[in-house]
Structures are given as C-alpha cells and as structure tokens.
Amino acid sequence: MSYVILLVLILAFLAGLYKLFEKAGEQGWKALVPGYNFYVWNQLTGRPQWWLALLLVPLVNIFVLAYMFIDLSNSFEKFGFGDHVAAVATPFAFFPYLGFKDDSAKYAGQGYLLAKENPIKKSGTREWTEAIIFAVFAATLIRMFLIEAYTIPTPSMEGSLMVGDFLFVSKVHYGVRMPNTPLQFPLVHNTLPKIGTESYSKLIQWKYKRFGNVNIKRNDPVVFNFPDGDTVALPTRNSVRRYRGSEGRNYYAQFARMHGRENVLKDFDIRARPVDKKDNYIKRCVGIPGDKLEVREGDLYINDKISPMPEGLQNEYILSANLRMQKNEVEKAGMELHDFYPIDQSGTKYICHLTAKNIASLKQIFGEDKLTRKIYTKDMSQDAFPHDKINYNWNVDQFGPVVVPKKGTSVNLSLNNLALYKRIIRDYEHNDFSLKGGKIFINGEETSSYTFKMDYFFMMGDNRHNSEDSRVWGFVPEDHIVGKPLFIWMSLRNGSLRDTKDAFKRKIKGGINWKRLFKSANDMN
C-alpha cells in the first residue's frame, strides 16, 4: 500500500511539472523523461550546468533538489515564504496546483537569476524562521544518514562503555540504510518528548535498502535496533496495579514470557513498531555470519577457539571479605564500595562484576582465596534463547553450540530445531509460516529446509552477567544494524545531566569524567 501511495505522489508531481514546462514554453513530454527533465528544469531556472552533477552526490542531492524546487517556484513569481515551504515540503501538490489551477502563475524567467537580481526583502522573523527550518532540515538529514549522538543507557557494556558516556555513531561505516519510515518528526527517534506518543507515521513504509555492505568485524561494538522490541507494551492503570515495575515502557515479548501472552494483551496497550523505530541498543558483535558460537563454563568460543577478550570484560564474582576494613585500598585500586552488593547480613560476602585488572587488585588486597567466579551450571535454568527448555536448556554461561545464520546458506528444519529459526523465517524475513499435523509450511508449501535471505549477527555485552543480549533474544538481522560508535564526546560520572547536577548540589563525587573524553569507542581495551 505504501508503494501505491508513493507512486501516486510521484505521478502527481510529474503531472504538475509537465504543465509548468508547457507554461514555460517547453514541450510537456520533456518533464517525463528521467534525467533529461532535470536538465530542462535547470535551464528554466538558471542554475549553472555543473549544478546538475551535485544530484549524483548522496545527501548533497537532497539539498540541491530542495533549491531546485524553490528556483522553480521563483520562476513563476512565487517568492513568498509559504510558497517556498509548499514547494519543498509538498511538491506533489504545489506544482500541480500552479500548473492546472493557478492561472496567475506565469513563467517570468529563470527563477534563480530573478531572485539574485531582485533580492527579496525579508523581515527579521522570516530570516530567523528560514534559518531555523534549514538548520533542522540539515540536522535531520545528517542524523538520518551520516552521524548521530547516542547515550549509553544501561551497564551491559560496563568495563568498556559506561552509563553516562555520550557517543557519536557513524551511519556510513556499515552502509547507509534508507529509512523504513520516512514520515517522522525531526530529531527524535520513536517517541515525542513529554507527550509520549509515537513520533512517526506508518502511512508510507519502505522495504529494507542499504547502500554499501554490512562489513562488521568480530568484536566491533555495534549500535542496532533492538530485535525483541518490535512490539511495545505500554502500561495502563490496570497493568500498573497488577504488575510491579510496569510503570515504564516494556517489551511485549519479554512480558509475554514472564506473564503469559493473554494477560499482557488484556492488561497493556500494545503498539507495534517498524524496524528503524525500534529502540537503539549497543553491544559487541562476537559472532558474524557463518560462525560457530558456544559459551562453555562462561567462556566464549568462536569456531572452537576461545574468543579474544576485551580488557574491560567483566564477569560476576563473589568476594568473601570485610570490604569496609580495606575501603581505602579498594578505592585506590579504582573501585568504589557501591560496586559491591552485600549478599549476607554480616557484611562479609559480596557480589561484584570485575575486570581482569580488578581481580588482580582484589587478590592482592584480600588474598587469592577470597574471590570465587560465579558460573551458572547446566542444571541452572534461565530465560535464554531460543526459549525451548526441552531441546535447548541453555543459560548465559552454558550456551550453544549454534551457527550464526548467513545469507544464502540453508538449514535443515525439524520440530526439534524450529525454535532457533522460527522468528527469522516469520518475523525478520516476512514469510507465511505455519505448522500443520507436525509438518512445516512456509508460504503455503511443505518444506524441510530454509535458505536465509539476510546475514545475522550475535551480540554480547562486555558486562557478561549484567547484560541482556543475543543469549536472551537471539540473532540480530542485518536490516537492524544502525552504525558504528566512533568516540566518546562527553562522559558524566552519574549517568545523566540531571543526576550530575544533583551530585554537585549535594557535594558528592560527580560531574564530568574527564579521562573518558574523546576516547575511542572501538578499543578492545
């Protein structure tokens, strides 16, 4: 349906261009010839010939086209601010109106030169309004296609990337992804601030298209749209009363596993989101397409070899010691008391998430026998992907082996392994999937195999026991890949601007973490 709407808008614009060409003394059919119509258009509006070459430059061509719309409006003596906004924002309506309905619209000459020779006297209000609109327009395009600011919201990458880190994310490193949802409010992601409603319209939906290759290397940190976040469960009065912790925004898939599908549908306001409007997550890509991946006793193996570990990687440990007796030594080693969580009344046993550097320091302070690594054994059941405890009773420390799906490769399907691939087949690659009498049907045909249409990736957080990642919700499709984090441009010790301001007021440790500023977000260290 979205493509039908888009086709109608394009035809309406071309019809208006046809009529305007005729009004300017050119043959109307020239407006319908791709490429040649831009040449004639440029001749009518008076821009230099080299201007046309800019239409071939990605992103730049959007600005060039906007100016060509304005030049054409000027050629018919439509110099007003409203005329220019209509020409750029709704050319499919404005130019047909000029061509077919507005008899006063006469071709007055080359619009670019007319505006240059007889500059329009603009009020201060108009100048400021045009400047603001241009700035928002430019910032929106840059954010959409080139680079975007991102904040680390959770401690899942802690040890490498911290809560309170503000990153710049490149959207060109893994190929420029065209938006699935072009009708959107500028400079926000999926929700309007304060109001809380969705910031986009699904009237027009485009299929996945990317210019360039998703060339992700193992151990790259990657920003992606959260695969398990395609459906959001928003709280209602009933859900807040019945479920603790439902005051915020929750994901339907997670709540359905916790409380049952029927209960969630009954008690929550359910909203479905397109791919590019799912929440953004950041994790480290530990498995690329075709990799055999396994977690054994908490250690990650790729293709049967232990994976290189970032220096900031954290695992969960139990510290058996009187922490407060050695408080100064612990803080000198770069740790703080609130990083240790007491698990008994005596205050001599703590759970902590530690890097290799932290472990060495604590062993030196307390002794070798005071630290014990916590590992979930095979008999410890968890809510792990693919959520099939009969065939795959995995957990975060005992996971796999599993092969990361690769585009063009095929896999044999059975009722035993279907949990691994059902979501890929049905939701990510949009096939009609069903089970009838113990037989598998894809797009109406019985089958025992499936060939993947996209590449997939396996993501894990560096804070291995405090990260909900691919071990919980599975593979990340290539159409969910957003970009590559570049560097930290700001880092706040307390996680947010508001918390940092409060910290200053209370005269506690807070403010800017100067050591992290402009640090690369791609270091394994």
Describe the structure.
This protein is of the alpha+beta class. Among the domains are: 120 residues, no CATH class; 75 residues, Alpha-Beta Plaits; 42 residues, no CATH class. Helices cover 30% and strands 21% of the residues. The strands form seven sheets. It has a seven-stranded antiparallel beta sheet. A hairpin with a 2-residue loop joins strand 10 and strand 11. The longest helix is centred in the N-terminal third of the chain and has 22 residues. The protein is elongated and about 90 Å long.
Lateral arrangement of strands in the main beta sheet? 1-2-25-5-9-23-24
> Could you report the average pLDDT, rounded to the nearest whole number?
84
End-to-end separation in angstroms reads: 48 Å
β-sheet strand percentage: 15-25%
Assign a percent range to the helix content: 25-40%
Shape: elongated
Number of helices: 15
- Give the radius of gyration: 28 Å
Parts with pLDDT < 50 across at least 5 consecutive residues: 496-509
Largest sheet: 7 strands, antiparallel
Structural class: alpha+beta
How would you summarize this macromolecular structure in one to three sentences?
By secondary structure, the chain is an alpha+beta fold.
Task: List its salient traits.
single chain; 525 residues; Alpha-Beta Plaits; seven-stranded antiparallel β-sheet; four-stranded antiparallel β-sheet; 15 helices
